[in-house]
Amino acid sequence: MNISLNWLSTHLDLSDKSVSDIDDLLTFAGVEVEGVVPKGVASDKIVVAEIKEAEPHPNADRLKVTRVDCGEGELRQIVCGAKNYKVGDKVPCALPGAELPGGFTIGETVMRKVESRGMLCAASEIGLTDTEDGLMILPPDAEIGKSVKQLFDSDTLLELEVTPNRPDLLGHYGMARELAALLKTPLKPLDIPARETTPASGVRTEAPDACPLYTAVRITGVSVGESPVWLKQRLEAIGLRPINNIVDVTNFVLHELGQPLHAFDAAKLSGAIVVRQAAEGESFLALNESRHALTPDDLLISDESGAALALGGIMGGLTSGVTESTTEIVLESAYFTPRGIRRTSRRTALGSDSSYRFERGVDPQGVLTASSLAVRLILETAGGTAEGTTEVAGEAPVLTRPVALDAARLDQLMGGSILLPDAEKILTRLGLTKLPDGTWDVPSFRADLRRHIDLVEEIARVHGLANVPARLRGTFAPASPVDAAHDSDMRVRQRLAALGFYECLTIKLISDTQLADALPLRPLMEGDVIRVKLPLSEDHSVMRPSIIPGLVASAARNVRQGVKSLRLFELGRVFRNAGGGKARDQESETLGVLLSGPVRPANWASPSPEDADIHDLAGLLSTLIPGQPLRLSPRDRKGFVLSGDIKSGDRNIGVYARLHPARERELDIDSPVFCAEIDLAKLRGFGATTRRIEPLPQFPGSSRDAAMEMPADLPNATIEKAIAKHREPLLVSCECFDSFTDPTGTRLPADRKSLAWRFHYRAPDRTLKSGEVDQAHQNLLEAIAKTTAVVYR
Amino acid sequence: MRATDWRILGFDEPRVPRYGPRLPMNESLSAIQADALARIDAAEDPRALEEARIASIGKKGALSLAAAAIKDIPKEEKAAYGQSVNSARAAITAAIEAKQAALQDAADQSALAGIDPTMPGRPLPTGALHPLTLIRDEAVGILRRMGFALADGPEIEDEFHCFDALNTPADHPARNEKDTFYFDSGKLLRTHTSSVQIRTMEADAPPVRIIAPGSAYRRDEIDATHLSVFNQLEGLYIDRDVSLPDLKGTLEYFLHELFGPSTGVRFRPHFFPFTEPSFEIDVKLEIKGQTPRWIEVAGCGMVDPAVFKAVNGSRGDNAYDPAVWTGFAFGMGLDRLAMIRWGIKDIRLLIENDARFLSQFA
Questions:
Q1: B positions 123-182 inside 8 Å of A (CB)
Q2: Hey, what domains does chain A have and what are their CATH numbers?
Q3: So what's the pLDDT on residue B8?
Q4: Which of A16, A40, A457, A616 is the 20 to 30 A CA-CA neighbour of A724?
Q5: CA distance B57 to chain A (A)
Q6: pLDDT in tens, A476-527
Q7: Which helix (H) or strand (E) holds A243?
Q8: Would you list the DSSP string of A284-296?
């Protein structure tokens, strides 16, 4: 909300306060000061000039060469591009040396070979509000050579953010009332004589819940026209454009008292005003020319013809408003309940300064005051005659009731930092009154004060947290399962970072197209994807069921930037339904890893390092969790290649895959892209049990090698399985250390491969004899050959 | 290295005729020594040196054969002859050792020649944690020292936990479909981590002292200062006699730990439906070459009794009796803290995962 400091000063004396004092005061009263904009002419070197001549510029079609009188005894030549003036007009002229808003200084220049000694200015160029396109035309009686600054008051515009619980601050008077209470200075009383009221005859309310109070005044013989200077200046000071005297008065009263008003052209009404619910589907054409289909939940201001004149409290209709030919008006001032305004405003997406206030809650006791002020100002500015009385339908609801202040609890909450009498003084300053029974009577404009704690809040706010002592204490809290999860996740993160991976953070809302990259632990079925109802865009419409789509998008982005080596990971939540939508809204946490491109950064010593392959991914997974080698177990995944499950022992804990080569080409990634996604809950489980440390071996062991030949497509895992199944007690470890194939078929048939394995044997309690090792090795090799298609070479 | 070590090279000793040159005289000892020293001196590599050694003091070397000839020396000359042999052997051995050292030294020198340590290093892949992780872990670390434990809750929430129980009016603008992501099921994406307050109080009886870092969602178009998915850290402390001094002490301490002990901290009155009184917290950002300015980092306040009432209703007991228990809650934007900490001007950098950005945290 915009507040003009000059306007504010009409209600209280702020002469000894600087702008920064007021900024602080508002800030610590709970009103956020979002901007402080100085308004008005700042430089003394902007003077009133009369245009004496204006000739076309010899070298530019759009410019003119003017000669102006600035009261210097001789004319000043200035090149000007504006069109809206005529010779004889008086305009602001910035002389060389004048500083204009935006921080630039006027000098003497040559524009297209013609000398220009100053600048003729538009209002906005000298810190005022434009009322027309082009130069600012000053009143004809402005004295030539006089500083323009003296013609216009300077002002300060405060851009404020008022919290939703304080609608009483949404007007200059309310803001002044608050400042007066905080500053302990007197507030100038509002001088608005009350008008007489009569029960309404020209108004009928059929929806008293939505509109408990509706008042109307008929004013005849008005002449719609331009507002006087003071009124236009008030509105311009807060950034509003004056329209005509009637509309300007209603806008002024809204920003003065916070009470929205509406003026109807009486000629366009037939019969009494009817405040009623809209019919289902009833059409309303708003002032801003948007059309809306209404529901019975919406409140219409109508008449006996049934016409939809205004959407109550929100916006007038296009056809019922005041125009230049209007001579008779009906001035509405009413109280609309916040709920209805909010609902209609949301449904129709119509909002206005009026609905903004009604939906937060205006002061029901201020409805008639605002009407009286508006009537007086309309008569002053537009002439005419007002009906002797204001018609009133319904009555002002009482929204406040006395509230008790619990002194003991106040003392506890404030840490004893304020004495009760001082606390009570704060309430009194804020307009509350202590009743004989000790409770506090709340003024009608503070309907937000309903409970003890609301009074405490006021006291704490005015007292200030700066005046409350700080206490350092707390209870002990045992670590929760979430703590354990956090620690486990941090270890995984640190390990991956140490292994040369960058942690990513991707948006959890992804696009439908990105779903193709998803690699969830269990494949998605129809109905498993969770979509938001009203996405901001197609790109962010689906809750990610997997981290991989985000990582793939990040990879593609980096590739576009010329990054070759991609080592990315992310830990975070994924979302899905399960069983085709049966189990809904399941959230789990996973680790996603993406690996692509050179395994090492290229350098002078190895200018083209090889690209990561599936074995690099396998290597990463085998070392990711200390003491828990994870293994790859191939299984087809639609849309991917080289895919499968990630296993810890027999348990599936994740999935891995290479993107389909077609997808890699689509993304312009030249190297294979490997991905893995692992269930974090299962990874965390590994950290839950403390590992026992093995004693170091006391006796030497022996190794034996074996060269195995087998069909090329026999997985290594089959051999591992056979070895494990044999359970040789002396075998302590084994590994495949070489692999040989010959695609030409000369040294080995092309459909065969040869693997070299090394086996380590050891006994914990003695040095093995050579014969024992040989025997154990022989037994193992036979066992492998029995269950697999392996032959020894 | 000792001379004998060279034998491990496995060179065959040269065969010498069994009945070789006879009776070398003293003069011939001098000749043998001179000849050996000359060969040693001329040796250019370990192999030549070893050959010289074998030819002179090897088992069948010239000096060894000459030494064996002592048996033919007249008795009275034996001692002098023996001495001459020994002195020749000592001279030859010393020359061999000196030559070995010189050759090794030369080999070591040549092994190091031509290495330019100023060439660029052969890089290892670098990795890094995301700045959001860094700031979150730091904040969590500080608050854990202060006795807060971690808590959690779903991101797909219902209106009760996200709004109703947090004292948000039924027609509050935050519930607007324009501002909040809803699902057809009626559920929504939590608009703040404050819903974890309710989840925690439903599950655990007081006292409660928890923090909950997590994501929240608002229907904001993504731009330099907004993300539709952002990250918060929520805190809640409920106990007997928790007061504004506790809130102030706790949060001032936290912010001083995070931003430095001399950082200015101020509490501005504000409004949140679920706390009363409510405050926003600013810290004074003082950067060299910039005018110090107050920037908002957190919101906080005393838990509104209406929240306790809602929790009790949901629990079906009076565990959170507002007459007995009071508490404070706070929330802060982790993305914002990261932006402040590292001077990040555009929030989108946090989700774009550009390696040029991420590598700055390595």
A1: 123-130, 132-133, 137, 140, 144, 146-152, 154-156, 170-171, 173, 176-178, 181-182
A2: 2-40+155-183 (3.30.56.10), 46-150 (2.40.50.140), 196-394 (3.50.40.10), 407-467 (3.30.56.10), 482-688 (3.30.930.10), 702-792 (3.30.70.380)
A3: 45
A4: A616
A5: 42
A6: 888 899 999 999 999 999 999 999 999 999 999 999 999 999 999 999 998 9
A7: none
A8: EEBTTS-EEE--T
